[in-house]
């Protein structure tokens, strides 16, 4: 259940209606006041919508801020006249921003949250690697160096090959 904008807003709805009219006349200040009046409402929606896995990647306040940036960019497309319509429009933008975040962080293999290690898991994994242990890449590079050395030794004539083998 989403709280109503009036329950969460910082001012009476009549002010928001007036700010919307002024914003349509070009007042950025009035638009900012209308946004600010709905901040608690949108934060409540965003906080309720974010699960713990996604919360590690994006915050509710970030989603609200992105919503306001998008809403300011396309305010001329808003067709409503009341605070209720305005906050419904903002909630729709917020839902879109949230869906984009879910797609970005939960549905792509590269950024899939389930595949990422927590801080504790990183510490445990790093603790298993001692200074003498090679990373997989370093081990592969060492194997390649050994292969090249064997090939080079095989190409040497016998007296030189024996000298090099004895020295290592």
Descriptive keywords:
168 residues, single chain, 71% helix, mainly alpha
Which percent band covers the strand fraction? under 5%
Low-confidence stretches: 6-11
Number of strands: 0
N-C termini distance: 74 Å
Mean residue pLDDT: 77
- The class by helix and strand makeup works out as mainly alpha
Using the alpha-carbon principal axes, give the shape. Answer: rod-shaped
Give a verbal description of the structure.
This protein has 10 helices and no strands. The protein has helices at 5-8, 13-24, 28-37, 39-49, 52-55, 60-73, 83-106, 119-128, 136-155, 158-167.
Q: What layout of secondary structure does this protein have?
A:
Elements: H1 5-8, H2 13-24, H3 28-37, H4 39-49, H5 52-55, H6 60-73, H7 83-106, H8 119-128, H9 136-155, H10 158-167
């Amino acid at each position: 259940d989403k709280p109503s904008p009036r329950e969460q807003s910082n001012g009476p709805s009549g002010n928001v209606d007036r700010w919307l009219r002024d914003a349509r006349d070009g007042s950025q200040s009035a638009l900012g006041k209308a946004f600010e009046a709905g901040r608690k409402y949108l934060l409540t929606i965003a906080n309720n919508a974010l699960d713990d896995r996604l919360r590690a990647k994006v915050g509710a306040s970030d989603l609200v801020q992105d919503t306001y940036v998008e809403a300011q960019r396309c305010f001329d497309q808003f067709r409503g006249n009341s605070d209720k319509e305005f906050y419904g429009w903002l909630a729709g933008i917020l839902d879109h921003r949230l869906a984009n975040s879910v797609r970005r962080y939960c549905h792509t293999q590269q950024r899939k949250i389930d595949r990422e290690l927590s801080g504790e898991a990183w510490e445990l994994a790093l603790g298993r690697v001692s200074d003498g242990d090679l990373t997989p890449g370093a081990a592969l590079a060492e194997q390649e160096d050994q292969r090249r050395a064997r090939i080079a030794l095989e190409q040497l004539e016998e007296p030189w090959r024996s000298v090099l083998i004895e020295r290592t």
